[in-house]
Amino acid sequence: MSDEKLAYAIQHDGWGELVLSRPARRNALIGPMVVKLREALASLLAQNSRVILLRGDGGSFCSGLDVDAFNTTPPQPWVKDFQDNWMNFHLDLYRCPATIVCALERHAINGGASMALGSDLLIAGQGAFLMVGEAAQGAPAPMNLAWLKLRASETMIAQLMLSARRFHGPELHRLGLALDVVPDVDVLSHAQKLSETLAKFPGSGLVSTKYAMRLLGPAGDGEDWFRRAKEKPANVGDWTPQRQRVGST
Amino acid sequence: MSDEKLAYAIQHDGWGELVLSRPARRNALIGPMVVKLREALASLLAQNSRVILLRGDGGSFCSGLDVDAFNTTPPQPWVKDFQDNWMNFHLDLYRCPATIVCALERHAINGGASMALGSDLLIAGQGAFLMVGEAAQGAPAPMNLAWLKLRASETMIAQLMLSARRFHGPELHRLGLALDVVPDVDVLSHAQKLSETLAKFPGSGLVSTKYAMRLLGPAGDGEDWFRRAKEKPANVGDWTPQRQRVGST
Amino acid sequence: MSDEKLAYAIQHDGWGELVLSRPARRNALIGPMVVKLREALASLLAQNSRVILLRGDGGSFCSGLDVDAFNTTPPQPWVKDFQDNWMNFHLDLYRCPATIVCALERHAINGGASMALGSDLLIAGQGAFLMVGEAAQGAPAPMNLAWLKLRASETMIAQLMLSARRFHGPELHRLGLALDVVPDVDVLSHAQKLSETLAKFPGSGLVSTKYAMRLLGPAGDGEDWFRRAKEKPANVGDWTPQRQRVGST
After folding, report:
1. Closest CA relative to residue C170, chosen from C100, C245, C247, C104
2. Which of A179, A198, A207 is the closest to C159 by Cβ?
3. What is the pLDDT of residues A166-198, one digit of tens each?
4. Which among B127, B133, B142 is positioned nearest to B110, based on CA atoms?
5. Mind telling me how many Å the CA of B72 is from chain C's nearest CA?
6. What's the CA gap between C212 and B231, in Å, rounded?
7. Best residue in B131, B157, B162, B228 to probe C by mutation, most C CBs within 10 Å?
8. Which of A130, A144, C114, C227 could lock A114 by a disulfide, CB 3.0 to 4.6 Å apart?
9. Beta A15-21 vs A6-11: how paired, if at all?
10. Per-residue pLDDT tens for C95-106?
11. Is C76 exposed, middle or buried (0-12, 13-18, 19+ CB in 10 A)?
């Protein structure tokens, strides 16, 4: 695992790529990777990226939390801070002044789905799928819920989260969650071209739009919104990540 | 009318069916039926149903208020309390911790539509339709409005409620209001199978999702939300249910 | 320009048409036209129009602000008050008790799009398009944003406004933004027939629905909502309308 990049940034002219990079694990998430994602996003913004392309290395977007890594004995040192760290990355995305494009190759599962749903413009492969599968594992999915409630509707929460199903590209398009659905081999190039096009827009239209979009509510600075999405009924105990099946298409 | 069941519950392993049962009237609503619906829902929840399948007996979901029964001379004793009773049933649905699946067979008209729209996951027949037809009769439709504003968007309120049209299964699917559209003869079995599948999900994912979904607003405990949905402009008088045409496909 | 009607009202039985009329400029917006639109809308409401059909003369709906007219030397006297005037017209639409139907012929661009998105029921031609293209010109689009945030969702803001693309009739239908998509030659007659049908609905169903729809929030009397939609990040300067390309299909 030591030679994995985990995550990195590629700066282009006015836009940048934010890349999940654990391809051997289909970019499954671990604590140090989220730290690197936050750093890479900050570096892109510091270099004035107006558009951020969020994508995964190796042909998949993200297969969710790496449950094996969460369940070692003894536990990895980053496990105890993971939930805070993870929410802070979502707050970074929520507050990001740049337009976020997501290239959904192959799959966006659970935690991976939440990053796709937190992006502004989703490009999905025809055979790719998004799955908020936590409910089928008995788990909550607060970041997915926070984004769907903010950006879509309760009907979308119900359909994606309570059914825990796979929603493939064409379904995401029908539901208005994906901007474009393209052949699987074209997802990345299509998303890159879109990002480049948007980065060439003059002036401040994109940033002003995102600013006012969030200003009109209901999530304010995001802190309370994302935190409350984690609340649970009084009779429900804490949940710990456990082994999950990583889907394949 | 005396041998009608009105409504009843069927408890399964971890899930239950909440059944409207006035099949000779296509499950048109009357006061005592709403009382029974509330009792049956409470009994299912008391037996730990994690998923509730809401459906009608006899091949139709619900044809709305039974206008004949609302207009007898003298009036039936339950008429005066109906509006409060009806809103309280919607508050029960709003606060229901279980996932609610609705089997939309044949039609869900007016009051029937409001129960379908208040459900989490709607399964519709290809030839079935949902119609919020009150506006065409000069009437408000506060429960439909409350649900659409909470769960969908103003565009959906406008399209469903101001046009007063029939929206068939495929249209409900396009609009993201129905999870699945299936052949008419398969609606019930499909909805039952889905309910059974969801009831087998371990742990508390479903209940936590519904909890946080509602916690994030905007309707709070629902009381004020559903009550305000009934408010009308100062120059508009009260409305009394009158004879309506029950559509057929 | 002196013999242009700019805008006018046609009163029918219970409904009326609100017509943009600068056909030689594809109904591009100038200050005096917005003044006339406000007057014509008020006159229709004063004559008890329950349904308003918003449309353009000459086969196009509206091509946005008339940038040439905004950039004369010396500036036209109405330029300095335009933004207030324009927002006030949107407040009129927001507060309009009548149901607003919009006939989207040929195109609804930028400012034109905001009127289409502020209407309750949108009828679009198969080859017609709606484009919120301001971001591609470096400009904000606060009225479009205010309506999409109020009536649709953040996903719609992102897709329509950040991509700055043309969305043709069938796409507007898929996204739930258009009620009907019809052949281009039928848009006007279809929208007129719909308006006439709705105007015949008895009683107060339509007006009560719109009243409660807006009462449930989040925009209150609209004043603060539309004003805040114009706010921008601290580091972004003012924007002045400049020459834009008017699309054609």
Report:
1. C104
2. A179
3. 999 999 999 999 999 999 999 999 999 999 999
4. B133
5. 22
6. 6
7. B162
8. A144
9. antiparallel
10. 999 999 999 999
11. middle
